[in-house]
C-alpha cells in the first residue's frame, strides 16, 4: 500500500524474509478477508495493493486464531480479571491446547518489560500484579501494536479494548470537540499527538467503567491543568456518559498539555520562555549549536530553540509517565529526509546525555519535524533553478507569460531572462532551463516547450524537467564522491551467511546489526581508516535509532567524524537479513573524516535516494557478486 506499485513475489519475499511460495499463500489469505473484492491484485508483473487493501487491514482483527490476536485476547482477559484467569478454561475458550496457552503466557511475559507488571502463575491460575497505571501502559502498548502505522485508528482501539468498550463510536466527536476547546484557550494543538491522547482517554474511560480509576495525586494542579481537566470532564460526560475522578483527570490533563507543542503562534517569545525550565533551555541551546556546527545546517534561531525546548520539556513529562507519543510519519521522514533525521538523532543523543531522557524512534521523528521545519524556512534562494523564457515579442505577451511562470513555478525556478527574438542564439542561453513557445534548433533535456498562455500540462512538464535536472546533478555529485570512497577490500557478499563465532568478537548473543557492523568495521580497521572505538560508536548509534533508512538499505555509522579518511564498506545480503524491525539487503558502513564534513550531506542523502528504488536495489543485489560488479551496477543505476 505504501509503494502503490507492482512488486514481484521474490521482491516481497526479500522484504519479509520468507519464500515466494509464502507470499502467494499470504495473498490468498488477504483476499479471503474481502470475499466481495480483492485486497491484492495479481498480474504478470507480480502483485500490488488493490482498492480493497484498506478493507483487509481493517478486518485483520477477525483472524482470532492468529498468534497476535490470541495474545491480545489473553492480555485483555488478564487485565479484566483482578483475581486472574483459569488457564484450562481460557485455553478451551480460545480453542487451543493448554500447552499452546502456556507458550502464549510466556509471550505475555515478554510484553511486560518496562511496564512494572509481573505475571504470576499458581496451579491453574494466572494473574497480573502491578499498579493500575502500569496496567494502562500495557493496554496502550497493545493499542499501538494494533495501530501498525502509528496513526490513530478507532477500529484498532476498539479491538484492543474489546467490542463492548465504552463509547467507541463517540471518540471521533470527542476528539473534534477537544481540539476545538483547546483552540479557544489559545493553544496550538499537535494533531498527531492529540490522537494518542484520545487513545489514553479511551483507556481511562474503559477502566473507570470497570471501577478501576486512578487514585488522586497530592500535587496541586496548575491553572492550565485545571482548565484542561474541566474540558475533559465535561466532554467525558457529554460523549461517553462517564464521570472521571480527580486522579484520571489530573493524569489526562497532564498528557494533553505535554502534547500541546506551544502556546498559539501569536504568543510572544517572553511568554514561551516563562514556561521553560532554564536547565532545559540551556541544554537545548547548547545541543542545537553543536549540531549546527557538526552538520553545517542553519538551525540556530531563537524561535526554533524555544519551540524545541518546549517540546523537550513536554517530552520529559511523557518520559516520567512512560506515555510516549507515536508518530505516523516516522518511517517516511527517515526514508525521505535521512539527513534531517540524522541531525535529529544527534540532537536526541546529546539531550539523552544531558537530561537523561530515553528517546524512541517516534520521539526522534518529532525532533526531525522541528529541524525540517526550520530548514524549510531558511532554505536559500540559490537552490532555485534558473530559467530563460523564449517568447517572440507581440505586444506584452512575453510579460504575461513571465508573470504566469513566476506565479505558478516561483518556488521551483527563477526566471532570470526573457528572449523575445524569433531567432534567438540558443547556444548562448546558459540557464538551467529554457522555457520556449517556439521550436528550438535542437531538442535538449533542459529545453521545455510551453504554450504562450501557460497551461496545467505546461506546469507539469516544467516541474518534471526541473526534477530531472536536480536529480541528475545530485547523482553526478554522488558518483564522483562514491568512486573516491569505496574500497575493494571492504566489500562483502553474503552477509546472510556470517558466522556468529567468527573472529570479529560479536559472539552468538550479538544482534544481526552488531555482527554485520563489526564484520564490515573490521575491514576498515584493517585498512587503517578507523579504529575499534569507531566500530563501538557505530553500534551505539545503531542502538539509538535503526539506520535502515529504506526497506532495503542500512547505513550504520558513528555520529562523530573521526575516520582518517572517508571510506565506505559495503555488504550484500541475498536473501535479506533482519535489521531494526525490518529487513535489508545492502549495508553500507560509512566512516567519515573531519575534512569531508560537507560531503556527508551529499553522500548520505543521495546514497539513500538511490536505494529507495526497488528495481535499482534488486538489480544491484542480483548482479553484484563482487566489488567490480557492484561498482559497475551502482554507476549504471546512477547514470540511469
From TrEMBL:
Name of the featured protein: BglG family transcription antiterminator
Pfam entry (one): PTS_EIIA_2
Alphabetical UniProt keywords: Repeat
Superkingdom to which the source organism belongs: Bacteria
Domain PTS EIIA type-2: 496-640
InterPro entries registered for this protein in UniProt: BglG_antiterminators, PRD, PRD_sf, PTrfase/Anion_transptr, PTS_EIIA_type-2_dom, WH-like_DNA-bd_sf
Signal sequence region: none
Residue ranges occupied by any PRD domain in the UniProt entry: 275-381
UniProt key word Cell division: no
Coiled coil: none
Amino acid at each position: 500500500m505504501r509503494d502503490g506499485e507492482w512488486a514481484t513475489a521474490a521482491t516481497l519475499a526479500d522484504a519479509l524474509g520468507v519464500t515466494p511460495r509464502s507470499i502467494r499463500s499470504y495473498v490468498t489469505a488477504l483476499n479471503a478477508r474481502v470475499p466481495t473484492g480483492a485486497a491484492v491484485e495479481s498480474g504478470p508483473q507480480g502483485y500490488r495493493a488493490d482498492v480493497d487493501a484498506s478493507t483487509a487491514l481493517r478486518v485483520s482483527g477477525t483472524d482470532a486464531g492468529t498468534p497476535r490476536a490470541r495474545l491480545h485476547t489473553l492480555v485483555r482477559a488478564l487485565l479484566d480479571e483482578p483475581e486472574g484467569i483459569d488457564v484450562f478454561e481460557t485455553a478451551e475458550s480460545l480453542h487451543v491446547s493448554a500447552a499452546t496457552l502456556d507458550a502464549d503466557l510466556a509471550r505475555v511475559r515478554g510484553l511486560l518489560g518496562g511496564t512494572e507488571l509481573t505475571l504470576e502463575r499458581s496451579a491453574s491460575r494466572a494473574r497480573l500484579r502491578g499498579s493500575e497505571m502500569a496496567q494502562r501502559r500495557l493496554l496502550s502498548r497493545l493499542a499501538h501494536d494494533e495501530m501498525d502505522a502509528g496513526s490513530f485508528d478507532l477500529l484498532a482501539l476498539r479491538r484492543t479494548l474489546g467490542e463492548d468498550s465504552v463509547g467507541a463510536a463517540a471518540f471521533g466527536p470527542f476528539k473534534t470537540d477537544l481540539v476545538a476547546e483547546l483552540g479557544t484557550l489559545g493553544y496550538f494543538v499537535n494533531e498527531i499527538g492529540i490522537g494518542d491522547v484520545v487513545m489514553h482517554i479511551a483507556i481511562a474511560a474503559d477502566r473507570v467503567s470497570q471501577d478501576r480509576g486512578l487514585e488522586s495525586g497530592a500535587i496541586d494542579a496548575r491553572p492550565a491543568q485545571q482548565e484542561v481537566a474541566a474540558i475533559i470532564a465535561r466532554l467525558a460526560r457529554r460523549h461517553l456518559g462517564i464521570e472521571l475522578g480527580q486522579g484520571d483527570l489530573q493524569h489526562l490533563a497532564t498528557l494533553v498539555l505535554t502534547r500541546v507543542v506551544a502556546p498559539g503562534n501569536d504568543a510572544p517569545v517572553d511568554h514561551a520562555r516563562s514556561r521553560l525550565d532554564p536547565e532545559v533551555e540551556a541544554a537545548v541551546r547548547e545541543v542545537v549549536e553543536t549540531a549546527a556546527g557538526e552538520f553545517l545546517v542553519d538551525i540556530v534561531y531563537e524561535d526554533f530553540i524555544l519551540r524545541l525546548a518546549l517540546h523537550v520539556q513536554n517530552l520529559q513529562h511523557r518520559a516520567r509517565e512512560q506515555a510516549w507519543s507515536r508518530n505516523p510519519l516516522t518511517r517516511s521522514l527517515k526514508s525521505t529526509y535521512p539527513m534531517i533525521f540524522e541531525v535529529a538523532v544527534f540532537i536526541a543523543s546529546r539531550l539523552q546525555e544531558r537530561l537523561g531522557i530515553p528517546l524512541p524512534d517516534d520521539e526522534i521523528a518529532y525532533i526531525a519535524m522541528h529541524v525540517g521545519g526550520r530548514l524549510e524556512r531558511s532554505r536559500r534562494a540559490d537552490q532555485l533553478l534558473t530559467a530563460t523564457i523564449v517568447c517572440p515579442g507581440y505586444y506584452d505577451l512575453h510579460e504575461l507569460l513571465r508573470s504566469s511562470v513566476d506565479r505558478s513555478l516561483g518556488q521551483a525556478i527563477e526566471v532570470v531572462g526573457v528572449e523575445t527574438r524569433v531567432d534567438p542564439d540558443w547556444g548562448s542561453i546558459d540557464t538551467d532551463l529554457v522555457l520556449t513557445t517556439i521550436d528550438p534548433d535542437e531538442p535538449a533535456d533542459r529545453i521545455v516547450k510551453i504554450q504562450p498562455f501557460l497551461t496545467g500540462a505546461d506546469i507539469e512538464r516544467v516541474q518534471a524537467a526541473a526534477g530531472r535536472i536536480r536529480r541528475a546533478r545530485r547523482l553526478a555529485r554522488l558518483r564522483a564522491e562514491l568512486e573516491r570512497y569505496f574500497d575493494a577490500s571492504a566489500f562483502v557478499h553474503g552477509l546472510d551467511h556470517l558466522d556468529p563465532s567468527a573472529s570479529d568478537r560479536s559472539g552468538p548473543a550479538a544482534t544481526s546489526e552488531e555482527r554485520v557492523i563489526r564484520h564490515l568495521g573490521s575491514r576498515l580497521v584493517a585498512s587503517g581508516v578507523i579504529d575499534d572505538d569507531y566500530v563501538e560508536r557505530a553500534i551505539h548509534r545503531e542502538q539509538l535509532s535503526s539506520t535502515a533508512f529504506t526497506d532495503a538499505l542500512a547505513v550504520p555509522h558513528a555520529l562523530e567524524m573521526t575516520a582518517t579518511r572517508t571510506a565506505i564498506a559495503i555488504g550484500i545480503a541475498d536473501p535479506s537479513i533482519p535489521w531494526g524491525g525490518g529487513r535489508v539487503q545492502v549495508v553500507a558502513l560509512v566512516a567519515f573524516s573531519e575534512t569531508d564534513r560537507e560531503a556527508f550531506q551529499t553522500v548520505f542523502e543521495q546514497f539513500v535516494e538511490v536505494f529507495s528504488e526497488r528495481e535499482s536495489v534488486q538489480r544491484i543485489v542480483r548482479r553484484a557478486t563482487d566489488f567490480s560488479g557492484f561498482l559497475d551496477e551502482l554507476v549504471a543505476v546512477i547514470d540511469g
